[in-house]
Amino acid sequence: MSDGSVFGVYPPSPEFAENAHVDGARYAVMYKDSVETPDAFWGREGQRIDWIKPYTKVKNTNFNFGEVDIKWFEDGTLNVSANCIDRHMITRADQTAIIWEPDDPKTPARHITYRELLEQTCRMANVLKAQGVKKGDRVVLYLPMIPEAAYAMLACARIGAIHSIVFGGFSPDALANRINDSEAQVVITADFAPRGGKKTALKANTDAALLHCSDKVKCLVVKHTGDQTTWVDGRDIDLTAAMADAKPYCAYTEVGAEDPLFILYTSGSTGKPKGVVHTSGGYLVYAAMTHQITFDYHDGDVFWCTADVGWVTGHSYIVYGPLANGATTIMFEGVPTFPDAGRFWEVIAKHKVTQFYTAPTAIRSLMGLGPEWVEKHDLSSLKLLGSVGEPINPEAWNWYNTHVGKGKCPIVDTFWQTETGGHMLTPLPGAIPTKPGSATKPFFGVKPVVLDAASAAVMEETETEGVLCIADSWPGQMRTVWGDHERFQETYFQQYKGYYFTGDGCRRDADGYYWITGRVDDVINVSGHRMGTAEVESALVAHPKVAESAVVGYPHDIKGQGIYAYVTLMKGEEPTDALRKELEAWVRTEIGPIAKPDLIQWAPGLPKTRSGKIMRRILRKIAENDFGALGDTSTLADPSVVEDLIANRMNRV
Ligand code: WTA
């Protein structure tokens, strides 16, 4: 095999391959089946989960712009909560389903068995029913990383309600937008969310959000820290007390395979975040299958995905995939550096974690603090490591491999998206030799194609570069944008006709390995979190002193990309450091701390074409501190603007 990178090729060890669910030979056969005879392949794989009424149709999908329609297992019925809990009761009632590791290591961890998970989920489902929540209704979850978050997801699924989780780092405005867009009638929150020794006032944020929502919205509050909060009688309900009073059993509701399971808002290149809709049958099959095969999960393993349930990674690989497989899954409330930089490794040693799945940004920040934090802890339980969220740079890959995996654990670099429901490109640990920095090969059923960005021609040669599209549907694919099927088609199927467009660029090497090169649209990836530059821009221009703004990403050592904002002030406004701070705080309240610009440059003018279009390519170059080759600037209305921007650039590395 050709090298493809200076960092070498790492084949699966024979011992790992021997015990793995899928080895190299099997991957080849199964992959061929999955793309050549998808009905037969997925007809078999669909049996991973329990159906109330079995499906007779498997795949019914259309990628043609104007007629996009995606259905899997469409005439089958099921219940997702029953699949994640009830069906394990015969064999696993006393097995730990969730290990909850609190923010403060002095607070004892909790082991929640499948029996307890059933009881708590049922209690919460009964509380929701008592509030009038029915099949198809939306429930917004704005919660810390506590077991109640999993109970709430599964309680919604149990009664056929659609959950929409809003990450606890989002602001009241962002929360209100999501409640309103989904027309939710219930919000579930908690008093406070402890993280890294600090507390976020979730209830107070929810109070602020609800000022902008229908007064019919009810607020269920988990008493987590027990600290005092404000209380609106008639609207707020003590969920902890209500669950204690509720009946411990609730029958599950039969739903269709294509009934929505959840909505998850995510950033795109234009407009407001869109509500990505995932449905019940196909999503669960895909989450369960990828969890088992990519991570080579076996009975008795302890699986830890460090994501927050507010992101898709938490949906698929903390809750739905692992629980559908009857796994033991860890839910961690804290952060990697609290109370010290050894926390991840301490938790791995404490709970004897076998598979560990995290993001490159976390690895890079811990790498900077030195290997001694890792070496203090016994990591001998680990069998496999995973990475997700952005390309992993080979230096971080090597550190992860050497210091965490001790050279013995395969690393699965999983490329996927909120829209895809589960892994798209990933090494299978017993089957595919890895190369640091490459997400390697497609998962079963996934047909990647590389297109020329400009001409949309399919690049047939093995070794090539272009934009990454997918030629056919897979069961975990999103079905629509909530309330806006047109936007769904325009975003993913319009630019490259007949294909699903990922928004990412990629390179394919001589061995057919895929290397993601990053987003080709106006989406940036900050610490593995997706951010639309348009969102940050509209937050900035909403400030009374801001006339205009353009936001781009720039390379950042820890975060992968940082947020670089060019800001033109209203006439007569002074560009001061105080105003810079004010704008940072403004964006935090408009969107949330994750959207705070890292660098703000005062721009007397922005480079525009004569037709008034901002030339982002130039702004990106200046932000990257790479202004030697700005390309053609002759179409600019006023070329002198660029000189000023270069002279006053903020990123002088
Ligand atoms: C990026 C997270 C390279 C990519 C699951 C994608 C990656 C976006 C990888 C989706 C990876 C995710 N290698 N890039 N292994 N994983 N990405 O929706 O740009 O939050 O389009 O889903 O993250 O981010 P999202």
UniProtKB/TrEMBL annotation:
Family from the record: Belongs to the ATP-dependent AMP-binding enzyme family.
Identify the GO cellular component terms for this protein.
cytosol
GO MF annotations for this entry?
Answer: acetate-CoA ligase activity; AMP binding; ATP binding; metal ion binding
Claim: rRNA-binding is one of the keywords in the record: no
The UniProt record gives the binding positions of Mg(2+) as V541, H543, V546
Residues bound to CoA are R195, G196, G197, K198, T313, S527, R588
In Swiss-Prot or TrEMBL terms, this protein is called Acetyl-coenzyme A synthetase
Q: Which gene encodes it?
A: acs
Q: Could you say which residues bind ATP here?
A: G389, E390, P391, D413, T414, F415, W416, Q417, T418, D504, R519, R530
Name the enzyme group at the top EC level: ligase
Q: Which cofactor does it need?
A: Mg(2+)
List-wise, which residues carry N6-acetyllysine?
A: K613
Ranges of residues in domain Acetyl-coenzyme A synthetase N-terminal: 27-84
Instruction: Describe how it is modified after translation.
Output: Acetylated. Deacetylation by the SIR2-homolog deacetylase activates the enzyme.
Question: What CDD domains does the record tag this protein with?
Answer: ACS
One GO term (biological process):
acetyl-CoA biosynthetic process from acetate
EC assignment: the record states: 6.2.1.1
Reactions mediated catalytically: acetate + ATP + CoA = acetyl-CoA + AMP + diphosphate
